[in-house]
Amino acid sequence: MESEVYSSTSEEDTHRIGTQLASRLEKGDIVTLSGELGAGKTEFVRGICRYFHVADIVTSPTFSIINVYEGKMPSGEPLRIVHIDLYRLKNKQELRTIGLDEWLALPDAIKVVEWPEKVKESLVRSSYHVSIRTFPGNDERRQISIEPVQALSSNAVH
Ligand SMILES: Nc1ncnc2c1ncn2[C@@H]1O[C@H](COP(=O)(O)OP(=O)(O)OP(=O)(O)O)[C@@H](O)[C@H]1O
Ligand SMILES: [Mg+2]
Description:
The chain is globular, with a radius of gyration of 15 Å. It has one domain (4-148): P-loop containing nucleotide triphosphate hydrolases (Rossmann fold). It has a 7-stranded mixed sheet, with helices on one face. The protein is of the alpha/beta class. The protein contains 4 helices and 7 strands. It has helices at 11-22, 41-51, 92-98, 100-105; strands spanning 4-8, 30-34, 66-72, 78-85, 109-114, 128-135, 138-148. It binds adenosine-5'-triphosphate and magnesium ion (MG). Residues 41-42, 60, 85, 114 line the site of magnesium ion (MG). Magnesium ion binds at residues 41-42, 60, 85, 114.
């Protein structure tokens, strides 16, 4: 499927683009985010959390690896947002310790994953992949590509 490309010239723009994507998310979805350190992945997650009325302050889970926020669907139904940052992941053992598979499999939460490249692709089946590009010499400009990943049909022929 084709990527959608957005241009951001401020943190607030990036929040808005995140909020827009959030309005298309369904329970169980996984959003993966790529981009160099400081690209704006966590800012994008803040935009997603804003849509779901998360009251907590969204901080980078770099040290804890996983943060869980309580939010609400537009219908008012409670929803958890699981924010995972794999940047500091050390080894496979740690994956098991944090229970990555279990978190990602949660059917009633929305999961967002920074640095999915740190684990094998097959471990994180995203619904949307977001890539954020920076521009040298322009601190605030970003190009944000959103790629809807086609759901794998259980009937797919391999
Ligand atoms: N257009 C923009 N969109 C997003 N962030 C921006 C933009 N312009 C400037 N910034 C700044 O860039 C920084 C992005 O930080 P953020 O923590 O979101 O990056 P990150 O991609 O999550 O990095 P890390 O890999 O370290 O987790 C913030 O300080 C933010 O204010
Ligand atoms: Mg981050």
